[in-house]
Predict the 3D structure of the following.
Amino acid sequence: MGGCSAPNCSNSTSIGKQLYRFPKDPVRKKKWVVNCRRDFEPTPHSRLCQDHFEQSQFEELAKSPAGGKKLKPNAIPTLFSAGDPPYPAVTTPFIMLPLKHELVEKESNVGDHGYARRTPLLGLEEEDGDRTATGQQSCTQCHLLKKQLEKEMQHTVRLQKEAEEMKKRLYRLDRIEKGLQNFLYEDQIRALSLTKRSRRAVWSPETILKARKIRSAVGTKGYEYLRELGYPLPSYRTLCNRLETKIMVTTDMSCEELAELGLGLVGACNSPTEDVGDNDEEDLLGVLS
């Protein structure tokens, strides 16, 4: 097993000391190298022992994979017996800023003397021209990006407005549906969404009973008029087929007149036979008693 990489330190795991690898982060690794007073590039096998870290640099409860003390994620070694480093030791994070480009030579203020005015060199003129062209190109690109960003922001605002309108519309439709449920059954509400000539409507027994009451109340013409207005009701022929036939008679009396007698007589239905919004297979669903 290797030992500690700090100068004047021979600690190793053989005497019970715990060693810690140099961090992979270049900034933290630089701090470790500076503080241990060595000018070298740590290798994957370089270590520092626990004696070079203050107690505040260790986790209180957590343990390392080896079972010993575990360093904090931002721990920095500060305890060394070597001499002073070539530059101050690092104890806090630092930020390295790039150096600014220095101009080759500043223009001197020499007054108005013609002989003292400086003429820029040809090479410098070309270099300044290239820098100006590059700056103009960058400004043009920034301008285009700003325009694109403004368009995207405007598009986002439009989408947000459309989403708000959709929420309001869904809220209104929900209230309308709840209002329809007060006097329509679910099959009637579904029939409202079908096309006028659709033949997929399936009527429930409750709707058939309601339709019979409506037909008895308003008559055949009133019933057909309600259907023409769009009220969701089965066709008159479907209504007759779904009702149980008690006694078949041959008479010149209409269905309305027979119903008014209250004798349970049902005559042949001569009402319109259009199946607007009905299913021809409804006859197989059964009849009501």
Summary: The first helix runs from residue 26 to 35. The helical segments are 26-35, 122-180, 186-192, 205-229, 236-242, 255-261. The beta strands are 19-21, 47-49, 58-63, 69-71, 247-249, 265-267. Confidence is low (pLDDT under 50) at residues 91-117, 271-289.
